[in-house]
Hints:
- By secondary structure, the chain is of the alpha+beta class.
- The chain has three domains: 1-74; 80-183; 192-376, hpI Integrase, Chain A, CATH 1.10.443.10.
- The chain is built from 15 helices and eight strands.
- The protein has helices at 28-36, 54-64, 88-103, 108-125, 135-145, 151-167, 192-200, 205-216, 221-226, 259-269, 286-299, 308-321, 326-333, 338-341, 358-368; strands spanning 5-14, 17-23, 40-42, 47-51, 68-72, 232-233, 238-241, 250-253.
- The strands form two sheets. A five-stranded mixed β-sheet has the order 3-4-2-1-5, with helices on one face. The protein has a three-stranded antiparallel β-sheet with strand order 6-7-8, with no helix packed on it.
- A hairpin with a 2-residue loop joins strand 1 and strand 2.
- The chain is globular.
- The N and C termini lie far apart (50 Å).
Amino acid sequence: MAKHFIITVGDFRDSSGRYFSLRTPFYRPLNRALHRIGATWRKELKCWLLAYSKEHWVQLQEATEPFGSLEIITKKPLSLTLIQNIKPQTRSYLESYQEMLYARGYAQNTINTYTNMMCKLLSQQHPTPPYELTIIQINKYRAAHLFQQANSTQRQFVSALKLLLQHFNNPIQPDTLVRPRANQTKPKVIAVEEVIRMIARTQNVKHRLIISFLYSCGLRRGEVLNLEPKDLNLERGSLHVREGKWGKERLLPLPQSIYPLLKEYIHFYQPTTYLFEGQKSDQYSPTSVAKIVQRAAKNAGIHQHVTPHMLRHSYATHLLEKGVDMRYIQELLGHSKPETTMIYTHVAKHTALAIESPLDTALRENMTNQNKDNDFKGLGKNK
């Protein structure tokens, strides 16, 4: 059975031209497929480069289809002409749709995902315009192309479709488009002591700070990567999350325990555009963050598979265990609906910016108890 990978696609430019940058796990059959379409491995960049063109984009989709899905991370959407061979009229509908999503403040990845989904639908139904699509056409398409897809993919499709029909004044009633139930799985968490071991046993300052932000502020991986130096207000003790899910902004308390590490990091790395930058001063890779967390968990003696999002789940769960009111946890996490936060379940009363991070609490209690465990030493102090 073939393995399944996320193949991260970026937009890279240098003096020699413009390229798709491709970050993939090492897998020989996938490497050979990329080499056959003209991609070259750049050791210094730790990625594949493929000349940027419509033909190469189509070839890339075809070559990688057996291995996994493409995850587009460019700050600007790839040109619609690169999605696939689409008719000019269909392209104009999609451009209008894309502009609407931007105007509503949807996140970049959401715009790319929704546009790709609607592109496939409209291309299949050509020449029917979106305002004349019927429920019969839609149901036939879903049965043929989405029946065996994961529930999350089907739910995304329905959300994207509702926006498309609404934008083009299609008479189909939104209630007739049924979304499958979301899989209600309990969030996986780790103990606060395990988080502290992960931080303490990570030697690299940048990696240590990334893990600290993921847990102590409950940030999503994308939110950490989108942070800019100007988002930090050390005097006020706050963190401004500007590019959250659905384009939402929120203000979070900045844990005092990471101040020394943060100051050391800024002094040493001197970030300019993003708080966490790659070797070429571009945005840090999502794959790199996942590897940092996994390596830290292994070094901390944690035997389960730990992901960046598990640190966010752990943050919320530990706040809940302290008795923090669900409404404030919802605000801190940036959830639009209380039902999303309810997976962590209940109680208590505090104001959002006055809430202490679980990391600060653990360190303070540790110092009070004069615990001698080496894993705690130095985390809340300047070196």
